[in-house]
Write a structure and sequence with these properties.
Layout (H helix, E strand, L loop, with lengths): L6 E5 L4 H14 L2 E8 L7 H9 L7 E5 L1 H14 L16 H15 L3 E3 L8 H12 L4 E3 L10 H10 L15 E4 L4 E4 L29 E8 L2 E5 L2 E2 L2 H15 L3 E7 L5 E7 L1 H17 L2 H20 L5 H13 L5 E8 L2 E8 L7 H4 L12 H22 L2
Parallel strand pairs: 1-2, 1-4, 2-3, 4-5
Antiparallel strand pairs: 6-7, 7-12, 8-9, 8-13, 9-10, 11-12, 13-14
Helix pairs in contact: 1-6, 3-7, 4-5, 7-8, 9-10
Length: 408
């Protein structure tokens, strides 16, 4: 027997899958559906989603279309960038970091409209179901969660299309054939996976890339840019002050032009399987290099190394959906504390898929030419001090060596 649901908030894109989910919720649960469509900078026109929801009988006051781009970058992407977060050493977590914000807004809307359930369109094989639902339960422990892909028998594209046609849900022509791959986009990245990408031996076809030019076709002349940082956050590009979303948008444009930010990755999903994905993160790739550049001269060596030790754990928490966990918040507090003096300017060279730091300066610099110089340092550093330092560090090694020599 289906559990009684009065009203559900659905994460709704207006595409085939979520439109079928909308109708299925109405029929299977007999409940009122509230749609929520988030603008996270995916670059798509969102108004068709509103019109489609209205055509399917959703009340205008129950259709939520929210521009979350600034909140997304300010409160989710930038905190992650302050940590230099990379999952498995490479992935900039573009999909992972969007899910807690969507979950947060869904719960806010559920409270606003008096809904007793939330629903999403993630499948039972992927990470997103975990990320959404951990967010829901962290923010509303008693909420009812509906995941249609784990409940219904519409387990093929043909069944989905047949269901849609029988309910007069329009099916775009490009959805009638088997989709060559699936795509997820937001202001930070575009990810593609499935179908033609499932063989990890085969090179990603060039037509899969939508966000960057082929590095081979990028301009033959390098472009030099500067990024200004304040307390670990990018605040200006080439001297022009910008909001967080504007910073990422501008860097995306620069990265696209120069073919920066492509990644072909076989990753370990939290659910246990390996999957192959293609990621394009042009602006994020530039930003993380720049942030490391300003940290190089402003962050103490011990603090920097500790951050690098903490980062894989922090990245894994985000990837696995634990954004709202106390351990992520504890790590964030330590990371943010480290950024108090991470201010200054980084100069970068963008060229044919590469981004390189070529200069950095800061009023808070810890770099001292006087100490490090190969020339006369005028007494700033006594080289004789190194002998005692080395001998103290060598003490245990010498004792081990003496012991081992006796046993020969």
């Amino acid at each position: 027997m289906t559990e009684k649901v009065k009203r559900v908030v659905l994460a709704y894109s207006g595409g085939l899958d979520t439109s079928v989910i909308l109708k299925w919720l109405q029929e299977h649960y007999g409940c009122e559906v509230v749609t929520f469509t988030a603008d996270l900078g995916q670059g798509e026109e969102l108004e068709p989603a509103r019109k489609k929801a209205e055509m399917m009988g959703i009340k205008p006051e129950h259709i939520f279309m929210d521009d979350l781009r600034e909140e997304f970058v300010r409160d989710f992407v930038f905190p992650m960038m302050r940590a230099n977060a990379l999952y498995e050493g490479q992935y900039l977590l573009g999909t992972s970091i969007a899910r807690p914000l969507i979950a947060k807004r869904q719960i806010e809307i559920a409270r606003q409209v008096g809904a007793d359930a939330v629903a999403h369109g993630a499948t039972g094989k992927g990470n997103d179901q975990i990320r959404f639902e951990l967010g829901y339960y962290a923010l509303a422990p008693d909420i009812k969660v509906i995941a249609p892909w784990r409940e219904w028998d519409l387990n093929s594209r043909s069944k989905l299309i047949a269901y849609a046609e029988s309910r007069q849900i329009s099916v775009p022509k490009d959805k009638r054939g088997e989709s060559p791959f699936s795509v997820d986009s937001n202001l930070l990245h575009t990810s593609s996976e499935g179908k033609i990408l499932e063989d990890p031996w085969q090179e990603v076809p060039d037509y899969v890339y939508s966000r960057t030019v082929n590095p081979e076709d990028a301009p033959n002349t390098p472009e030099i840019i500067t990024i200004d940082f304040e307390r670990g956050e990018a605040i200006a590009i080439n001297g022009e002050a910008l909001t967080p979303a504007e910073v990422l948008t501008k860097l995306n444009d620069l990265g696209r032009k120069h073919g920066i930010g492509r990644l072909d990755l076989v990753e370990n999903r939290y659910i246990g399987m390996k999957s192959r994905g293609m990621y394009e993160t042009p602006g994020g790739t530039i930003l993380i290099q720049a942030h490391r550049g300003i940290e190089q001269i402003t962050l103490d060596g011990g603090a920097m190394h500790l951050k690098d030790e903490l980062m894989p754990r922090y990245a894994e928490l985000i990837y696995n959906g634990f954004w709202f966990s106390p351990e992520r918040e504890m790590l964030q507090a330590a990371i943010d504390h480290s950024q108090a003096r991470v201010s200054g300017t980084v100069r970068l060279k963008l060229y044919k898929g590469s981004v390189n730091v070529i200069g950095r300066k800061s009023p808070n610099t810890l770099y001292s030419e006087k100490v490090v110089t190969f020339e006369d340092d005028a007494g700033a550093y006594n080289q004789q001090d190194a002998a005692g330092f080395i001998k103290l560090n060598a003490l245990r090694l010498r004792l081990l060596g003496e012991r081992n020599a006796k046993s020969l």
